[in-house]
Every structure is written in C-alpha cells, then in structure tokens.
Amino acid sequence: MKHNRINVLGLGNVLFGDEGFGVEAIRALEKEGDYPETVQFVDGGTQGLYLLDYIESSDAVMVFDALIPLDFESRVYVYQKEELPAFIHRKMSSHQMGLSELLGIAQLHGRMPERLVLIGIPPRVLDLGSGLSGEARELLDEAVAHGRAILDGWLQE
C-alpha cells in the first residue's frame, strides 16, 4: 500500500514544560532522516481545529503529544488507530479543540487516514518557561525511535 501523503504532527505548547514534548519530538525525528516530499512534519502547537486538514488530507498520520494521563507510568506509549484510548482529550485551555475532537470530526466527514498512530508520554512538569523535564528528555529518544520505525515501515509498504 503506497502512502501518498504522510503527516507527522507534534502537538503541545513549548512554553509549558513537558507540554512541548510533541513539538520537540517531531523536530528531533525530522533532523534524523532524509524523508521524501510525501512526508510533512508539522509543528501543530495548540492550533486545534486548524489541524483538521492535516488529518483529513493524509493517508497516514503520526501524532506526538504529552497527553497520557498524569497517573500513568512514566514511559512512552504507542497507540495504533484501532487502539486509541478514549481519554485523549487533555488540553491546556477549555477553548481549544483536542485531538479526540479532531479525530471525531474527521470520522464524521468520512476522511480518516488509513494509518494513524499516537506516540505520547504523561507530562510531569507543566511550569511556564521550564522546558522539558529530565523525565521527558529521557523518553524523547525512545519516542523518536518508535516514530522512525513506524514511519520507515509506512514508507516501505
């Protein structure tokens, strides 16, 4: 199966500690490889609804975010499309549209990507201006390695 368009989204706010994990992860992944033009790396920040087209217009979407519940073990979580948990709704503001809402809209539109993967961690530090915590930094390489392996697999299909 040939994927004509793959979007790799990094979600989060780099101003709030571990909340910036997703953005840091896509930056690291993009630097590591020489990917074809069909792969687009998107710093999605906290853009909410403005990210819908990146989901609906893709054959495959990879999302990095620090949205795993805080009470979960501090490790990297990887969920494929059919495994996505119902709890992916954490957001920094009640005015934002979260990932679960975006996926729900794409599904209602009948425009879900064939492949979808979420790679995330539970954030530990959400302080303004703190950068990634030591725990999040330690998990970054592992998250990027998971992303690279999945992306390489998609490109070889």
Alpha-carbon distance between the two ends: 5 Å
What form results from the Cα inertia axes?
globular
How much of the sequence is in beta strands?
15-25%
H-E order: EHEHEEHEH
Strand arrangement across the biggest beta sheet:
2-1-3-5-4
Could you tell me the CATH topology label: Rossmann fold
Class per helix and strand makeup: alpha/beta
CATH superfamily: HybD-like
Query: What number of structural domains do the residues give?
Result: 1
Mean pLDDT: 88
**Can you count the beta strands?**
5
Corresponding CATH architecture:
3-Layer(aba) Sandwich
Instruction: Outline the biggest β-sheet.
Output: 5 strands, mixed
| Percent in helix | 25-40%
Detail the poorly predicted runs: none
CATH C-level label: Alpha Beta
Rg over C-alpha atoms, rounded to the nearest angstrom = 14 Å
What does this 3D model show about the protein?
The chain has one domain: Rossmann fold. Helix content is 32%, strand content 18%. It contains four helices and five strands, in the order E-H-E-H-E-E-H-E-H. Helix 1 packs across helix 4. The relative contact order is 0.26. The model has no long low-confidence stretch (mean pLDDT 88).
